[in-house]
Structure formats: C-alpha cells, structure tokens
Amino acid sequence: MTTRAALDYRTAGVDIDAGAEAVRRIRSLARGTFTPGVLSEIGSFGGLFRPDLTGLADPVLVSSADGVGTKLKVAFLAGRHDTVGRDLVNHCVNDILVQGARPLFFLDYLATGRLAPDVAEAVVRGIAAACTENGCALLGGETAEMPGFYADGEYDLAGFIVGIADRARLIDGRGVRPGDELIGLPSNGLHTNGYSLARRIVFDTLDLDVDSVPEGLDGPVGDVLLRTHRSYLPLVSPLLAEAGGIVKAMAHVTGGGLTDNLPRVLPPGAAVDIERGAWSPPPVFAFLQRHGGLGDAEAFRTFNMGIGFVVVCAPGERDGLLAWFRRRGEPGAVVIGRVTAGDGAVRYP
C-alpha cells in the first residue's frame, strides 16, 4: 500500500509565512498615510473612517476603481515595482477630481501567483507615497496569493478610492456651451493607457529591451515607459476651492484618449474641435506613431498624446486660468480647442 505524503497549504503553493511578512512590512507603510479620519488599524476586517464634514452643506461621496493595466508587464521586465503603485493612486485621484472631489481614503488589491515580500513592499511603498502626496489614507487592502493563476514573477494590481465633495460644487458639465475653451494640462508620457500597443511596437516589432536607448526617445525604454502617471490634484484642487464655479467641466484623459474621454463630460448638442498643433507631445508619442505606422485617429484614441487632463471654461475665463496654472508651476497649460455645436464628436480639423 502506497503512503501519500501529507499535504499542506505551502505545498499547494501558498506561503502563509510570506504573506505574514508582507503584511508586517505593509502595515508601517500604510500607517504612515493615516489622516485624522482613520479610526482603525491595518489588519481589521473593515477600515473605519470618520470624514470631516466641516464646510460641506450637502456632502456627496465620490468613488472610483481602476488598475494599472499592462504597464505592469514593463515593470516585470525592468524589475522595478516602486512606480506602479503611484500610477494606481494618481489615476484614481484624477478620476474623482474630474467631478470636483478630494480623496479621503484608498484601498488596494494585489494578487500574485507566488508572494514575494520584497516586491509587495515595493508596490505598496509606491501606493503609500502617492496617498501621502494626495492627502488620502491607505485604509486597507488585500494581498492575494493565487498559485497557478498568475505566471511566476507577475502580479495584478487594482485600486479603489473614495472622496468627498459638496453637492452644490459638483462639476458635471451641464453648463458647457459652444464657444467654451479647453485648457489642456500636459502628461509626462503614456500614464497608464495604451501599453498593449506600445509594448507590441517596442518589444515585439523593434525587439528592444528596457535598457535600449533608441533614436527618438529621450531616455532608456524602461524609464520612458515607466514614467509615473501624474496627479493633477495639487494643481487643480486649489482652483476649485477659490474659483467660484468658473470651471465648467474636466476630463481625465485615460483609455480612449481625447477622442473618447471628452464626450463623457459634454452635454447633449455639444462637440469639440481640437487644435493638434497647440502643444508639443513628449517624444514617445511620435516614436510610437512612426514605428507602429499609426495614423492620427488611432493614436489619439489609444494614447493621451501629451494631454493628461482637460479643464473646460468660458472664453472670458481662459486667460485667468492659464495664468493660474503658470503661477503654480505648470507652464505647459495651453488652450487645445473649443466646444462647438454637434453630436458629441471630438474632431481634429
């Protein structure tokens, strides 16, 4: 009679001790982000948060969830895991900023085939740093070890954010009218979108690696592709507090580019004309277009093309807003187009 060896969770691929070590490292990182509203510790079954409602006549919670997408593949190739957490937080912060909300707290989900505490710590270090920079608490999260589900050395990452705004100051685009101006705020690269196509061009078509420095890029491939998704909160949030309603709409330029994201904040009967020559995109976009044979329509719907965030205002407010952004260290703020009558289309005449 054959005696079978005893099984345990470790032999099935889940290392509980590694998980405990990861949580130990993460706990101090998360605690460093805690704001006065946090009422619970990392490790509780649920995170407790008491919001400060001072100055809010009719508080509204604003939430969003997102991921980093296949930019993670570049992080795996480069062996760099401290930037994707920043990408995740900043993306989510920008999504709720569009409606005029400030972030309260953030939750993360990190799933991997085999848990490496050093990698988990690096990822969460980036998350914690971005939470601190954006003034929100890393309230909790989940680290899941799922053997057989992810390839060795790979993981997935998602984030969930909750913010708050006064209902009377929510920004929903209802006041947008033909003739209004679009002010674009520059991106520093691809942010977190278009990476499936970018990786195909860079790593498959051109056969480059993360250390290659090809002509047409302003740095090694890995550095260029891992540039962090910007948070526009420090630049835009003070404007919302002071402006008295001069911002009519805002758009975070993510998947779908200007082409698909601007219509999300337009009222019925409005469209947009974009002036393509109004700004100079980072070199990575021309590089990808040239080597991928991408037409403008495909490029503008896949990538942000150098504009990461858009603010819509009345023509009479344009110069004041541009001056606002430039006084606060953003010389790249520029008028990129205007609202017209139409069926919601974004045109590039």
Task: Describe the structure in your own words.
This protein has 11 helices and 10 strands. With 349 residues, the protein is of the alpha+beta class. The protein has 2 domains: 152 residues, PurM-like, N-terminal domain (60s Ribosomal Protein L30, Chain: A); 167 residues, Phosphoribosyl-aminoimidazole Synthetase, Chain A, domain 2. The strands form 2 sheets. Strands 6-8-5-9-7-10 form a 6-stranded mixed sheet. The chain is globular, with a radius of gyration of 22 Å.
Gyration radius, to the nearest Å?
22 Å
The average pLDDT value, as a whole number, equals: 93
- What is the beta-strand fraction? 15-25%
Rounded to the nearest angstrom, the distance between the terminal CA atoms is 80 Å
Key phrases:
33% helix; four-stranded mixed beta sheet; 10 strands; 2 domains; Phosphoribosyl-aminoimidazole Synthetase, Chain A, domain 2; 349 residues; 21% strand; 60s Ribosomal Protein L30, Chain: A; six-stranded mixed beta sheet
Layout of helices and strands:
Elements: H1 16-31, E1 59-67, H2 71-78, H3 84-97, E2 102-112, H4 117-134, E3 137-145, E4 155-166, E5 181-186, H5 195-205, H6 221-225, H7 233-242, E6 247-252, H8 257-261, E7 270-274, H9 283-292, H10 296-302, E8 307-313, H11 318-327, E9 334-341, E10 346-347
Parallel strand pairs: 2-3, 7-10
Antiparallel strand pairs: 1-4, 2-4, 5-8, 5-9, 6-8, 7-9
Describe the structure concisely for a colleague.
It is built from 11 helices and 10 strands. The protein has 349 residues and is an alpha+beta fold. Strand 2 (102-112), helix 4 and strand 3 (137-145) form a beta-alpha-beta unit.
